[in-house]
């Protein structure tokens, strides 16, 4: 691979991409992005987004696990495809989530206060915290993998960071599904 800008600046690019991604999320959640900037989808589409995102999360869990299994079996091309698919699923999830947040705002928890305080809120906080921590880890692992030949990757932190990113990503996706179930199915 050529010695390009991205290859030489993986850490800096990780920091910039992470900061931009997190700023977009915070801006959307805090209502900084005006809904008038985006076209409004039909109500049925907006109502379907949480379910679509839960399905995307479940599929991402499967693709992450498939990627972990593939690399443990030495199948680099299958690992790369599975983790690339996981990243695309996450990007799709995030785009849909942010779109819905900007257009409709956050969803109010309709269950009892005791469930809100002792179940929903702790699950949501851990889910969000892991998602925030995962962003730079995933960017870093993807940038290392994307800027190196396969034979060079073992000499990088890709495997170490990737293991942590995959584990945290799995838990975050699973907790996201729990949040969905509490918001849209149970209550």
From TrEMBL:
InterPro entries membership: DUF420
Q: Where are the transmembrane segments?
A: 44-68, 80-99, 119-143, 164-186
The lineage's top-level taxon is Archaea
- Keyword Cytoplasm in the entry? The reply is no
Could you tell me what this protein is called? DUF420 domain-containing protein
Pfam families recorded: DUF420
* Organism taxonomic ancestry: Archaea, Methanobacteriati, Methanobacteriota, Stenosarchaea group, Halobacteria
Extract the PANTHER family matched here.
DUF420 DOMAIN-CONTAINING PROTEIN, HYPOTHETICAL MEMBRANE SPANNING PROTEIN
Q: Which organism is it from?
A: Halobacterium bonnevillei
> Keywords assigned by UniProt?
Membrane, Transmembrane, Transmembrane helix
